[in-house]
Amino acid sequence: MAAKKPTVWFDEQLYPHVRQGLSIGRVLFRERTPHQDLIVFENPTYGRVLALDGIVQVTQKDEYVYHEMMTHVPILAHGRAKRVLIIGGGDGGILRETLRHKSVKHVTMVEIDRAVVDMCLKWMPSVAGRAFEDRRTELLIADGAKFVAETKQRYDVVIVDSTDPIGPGEVLFTERFYRYCRRCMAPGGILVNQNGVPFLQPDEIPMTRRRRAKSFKVASFYMAAIPSYYGGLMALGWASDDARAANVSLAVLRRRFAAAKLKTRYYSPEIHSGCFALPAFVADLAKR
Ligand code: SAM
What we know:
Layout: E1 9-12, E2 20-23, E3 26-32, E4 37-43, E5 47-52, E6 55-59, H1 63-78, E7 83-88, H2 93-99, E8 106-111, H3 114-123, H4 125-128, E9 137-141, H5 144-150, E10 155-161, H6 175-183, E11 185-194, H7 204-213, E12 218-224, E13 234-240, H8 250-260, H9 269-274, H10 280-287
Parallel strand pairs: 7-8, 7-10, 8-9, 10-11
Antiparallel strand pairs: 1-2, 3-4, 4-5, 5-6, 11-13, 12-13
Helix pairs in contact: 1-2, 6-7
Bound molecules: S-adenosylmethionine.
């Protein structure tokens, strides 16, 4: 009887004393790009998985949670968003969910690494679907920090779907970057950003809150649970000068959600309404 092939593991080593292992069914693609190490592999539980610099970015089976919460919460809270800016987001999931809002007329996506876009389209096409072919999409391969510092365009919603604050993504967590995001937002604009898993990345909470508060009247967070970003709830950063935007009534959210005719798998007006209620330990971290 043929010896059973040993299981090959992808070991995500984001933390010194805790790590996540995903068995690798097949490596579909691997390359060191000019910006980062990129791998796409198959896992029986999560389906196809994209990892950058050894860190899980997106999986086929749970990507809808993060992508729905990073798009529908700011867009439905805003209520009249026509122009959206996505920083990062190379897998196309945020773009896909944003374009589901027929009221959105233009989306600029600024991704630093062309290979992420191309390899996700090739090996994980279900994530972006046909979003890159949409006539409302303007895709720029560039550094997001440079773009917001120079652009003359203005946006109602800015979504920062970046890697962690290491490598090419580090600049997307700076006070200067948030200040320039503010500069290219229209009045009443909303900025959201991936902000780590507070239980394992507690420092990211006070760090980004302090830096965003320098440019915005409101700098807080909302929460979502993404299975492949292990360590419990994930924090998503929220910033705006419009204090009402984080407190839209459930009745108004239900009306806007119905009008948008969205079928979702995680997002709902009720989830939206509750996601700004922070666990006490996160609220404490945010006060630091
Ligand atoms: N959802 C994932 C997370 O929360 O960890 C992020 C997914 S998305 C693939 C992250 C993207 O940010 C990558 O494609 C990466 O190339 C891009 N990125 C990193 N630094 C960037 C920068 N300075 N400007 C634009 N895109 C950047």
